[in-house]
TrEMBL record:
InterPro entries: DUF899_thioredox. This is Dithiol-disulfide oxidoreductase (DUF899 family). The lineage of its organism: Bacteria, Bacillati, Actinomycetota, Actinomycetes, Streptosporangiales. It comes from Nonomuraea africana. Pfam families: DUF899. Residues 34-54, 177-196 are annotated as: Disordered.
Length: 228
C-alpha cells in the first residue's frame, strides 16, 4: 500500500490482502472493458416485424419507433408489474428509482424508457408515488410486446430484462438484451434455487454495487415497498 495518511498505519496483513484485492479489481475492470467492447461489436440483432403499440401514462397511443426521438438507440427497462398485481416488484421499483435519477444524463446519448404490461393508470399511480420525474414510462398492454420478448416464461410471473433497441438502419432491431438470470433465448426455462442466482443485472444497478463494497455485503437485505 502506497497511499498516504491512515493507510500508512495499516497492518501488514491488511496491506497484503488489499494489494491482492486491488489486482483482482483491476482484472475485473479490464474484463468489463473487454465485455463492453464485444457487446458493441455484436452483429445486427433480430428485427421486429411490426411496430409494437404502447400507451403513455395518459393512455395516449404511441409506437415503439416513436420513442427514439433523434437517437438511433432506445434503452428500455422491462419492469415486473402486471395488470392483476397489487404492486410492482420492489426490486424493479428500486431499479427504476436509480434509472430515473440518471435519465437526464442518458438522454444526451440515447432514448430511455420503462415498460410494463400493467395499464397506464396503474403505472401512472406508481410513478407518482415513487416520484419518477425523468424516465418515460409506457404500458405494453395495448399489444403483445411483453409476450413477444418472452418475458412470461411462467404463468403469473414476469422476467425483468434490459433491452437495447437500435434503429440506425431505419429498422427496429434488438441490439442487446440482458436478464436477471443471464438466460439465453434457446435455454430451457431456468428456475433459480434462491434469489442469489438472479444477479444478471446487478452491475447496472448502483444500489447492489455499492452494498457489495461493505464488509457486511448486501446480506439478506431486500428493498421495501415504501416510497421516497
Amino acid at each position: 500500500m502506497s497511499r498516504p495518511g491512515l493507510f500508512e498505519s495499516a497492518t501488514p496483513e491488511y496491506a497484503k490482502a488489499r494489494a491482492e484485492l486491488l489486482r483482482d479489481e483491476r482484472r475485473l475492470r479490464d474484463l468489463g472493458e473487454q465485455v463492453a467492447a464485444r457487446r458493441r461489436a455484436l452483429p445486427r440483432g433480430p428485427e421486429l416485424d411490426e411496430d409494437p403499440p404502447l400507451a403513455a401514462l395518459d393512455a395516449s397511443p404511441v409506437r415503439l419507433s416513436g420513442l427514439f426521438g433523434d437517437h438511433p438507440t432506445l434503452l428500455v427497462y422491462n419492469m415486473m408489474f402486471d395488470e392483476d398485481w397489487p404492486e410492482p416488484c420492489p426490486l424493479c421499483s428500486m431499479w427504476v428509482d436509480g434509472l430515473d435519477a440518471v435519465t437526464p444524463h442518458l438522454l444526451e446519448r440515447t432514448a430511455v424508457a420503462v415498460m410494463a404490461p400493467a395499464g397506464p393508470a396503474r403505472l401512472a399511480e406508481v410513478a407518482r408515488r415513487r416520484q419518477w420525474r425523468w424516465v418515460p414510462v409506457y404500458s405494453t398492454q395495448p399489444g403483445d410486446l411483453t409476450d413477444r420478448l418472452g418475458l412470461r416464461a411462467h404463468p403469473g410471473d414476469l422476467e425483468p430484462v434490459v433491452t437495447v433497441y437500435d434503429r440506425s438502419d431505419g429498422r427496429t432491431r434488438i441490439s442487446w438484451q440482458g436478464s436477471a438470470m443471464l438466460s439465453d433465448p434457446g435455454d430451457e426455462p431456468y428456475q433459480p434455487s434462491d434469489g442469489g442466482d438472479a444477479r444478471g443485472l446487478d452491475l447496472l444497478c448502483a444500489t447492489w454495487s455499492l452494498l457489495d463494497l461493505l464488509p457486511q455485503g448486501r446480506g439478506d437485505w431486500y428493498p421495501s415497498r415504501r416510497t421516497r
